[in-house]
Amino acid sequence: MGNTPFMLKAGVLGAGHLGKIHLKLLQQSDRYELVGFYDSNPEYAREVEASLGYTYFPDIDELIAACDMIDVVTPTTYHHESGKKVLEAGKHLFIEKPITVTVAEAQELISLSRKHNVKGQVGHVERFNDAFRTVQDRIENPMFIETHRLAEFNPRGTDVSVVLDLMIHDIDAILSVVKSPVKSVSSSGVSVISETPDIANARIEFENGCVANLTASRISLKKMRKARFFQRDAYISVDFLTKKVEVVRMKDAPEVPGDFDMILQNAEGIKKQIYFDNPDIEESNAILMELETFADAIENNTRPIVNLEDGTSALDVALKIIENFKSL
Questions:
Q1: Where in the numbering of this chain does the Gfo/Idh/MocA-like oxidoreductase N-terminal domain appear (predicted)?
Q2: Measured in whole angstroms, how far is the alpha carbon of residue 233 from the centre of its chain?
Q3: Which CATH architecture has domain 8-118?
């Protein structure tokens, strides 16, 4: 059978829609032992306990004390307060995206995690999407990136900005592959149904010349979650929704092309061969993977894949995009 894996005692704060998914996956995982959960609504929490069998802790501090790792799946407004409690108790912190409401709050969580020598990871789940994971290493120095994240209208989601709800996924993915500081951010947004913009477009320019153009909408008639990366000699397309990828590469054309080789010739007479390099995609559960790779980082004392600094960088860019709407 081999060695029993290192198991961490885990607790969940917040048992809403996503909280329940996290509870289920932590219970299934062989990396965690689920201790229980806390929710600020005692009546609702008792219902969850009765129907799903997870142990409800009416006292948040008691739950934190009983665990090695706490998974914060509360509304964003409580992230800072909850995260602070967890880190000050010297426990590892997994926190949903966006990390906090403000960058200052996020920076406080970073300094607390350093002070107490514990790890933190932010739930930017698209980083664990099978399609993105498969091609991530092939994205090398992209110079133009375009993303579209369109969702159908859901009144439940309009209390939070479309940028913090949807676009932040793409901001994080882009920041993870562009190895250069952000130089400038410009954006425009339109409020169609809600008080805040329902559709937004942003342009992020990086110091190295890379430009990213992002569009997010929550009033679309169809769902779409696509990103396209253009780099020297390659074009990479990622469909986060259908989990499909397309990698188109260019290389110098052979002296004697084959009958089926696709050859392009530019104005200078240079011939290039186009070939498709579409890798196989291994399927996995992205939320389970983000939680389990966090367990690996804790066990091996390595950097979490999406650490608190990454979550803060994505929040910083998202807030700059929102700030631009106000100045329009």
A1: 9-124
A2: 27
A3: 3-Layer(aba) Sandwich (3.40)
Can you list the positions of beta strands (E) in 151-198?
182-190
Structure tokens at 17: 């829609």
Residue pointed to by tokens 């990828």? 245
Q: How many CB atoms lie within 10 A of CB 155?
A: 8
Handedness of CA 163, 314, 37, 288 (dihedral sign): positive
Q: Where in the chain is the domain with CATH 3.30.360.10?
A: 127-285+316-326
Q: Which residues of the chain have pLDDT under 70?
A: 1-5, 156-159, 327-328
Cβ atoms 211, 144 nearer than 8 A = yes
Angstrom distance (rounded) from CA 188 to CA 156: 23
CATH code, 127-285+316-326: 3.30.360.10
Return the pLDDT at 3.
Answer: 52
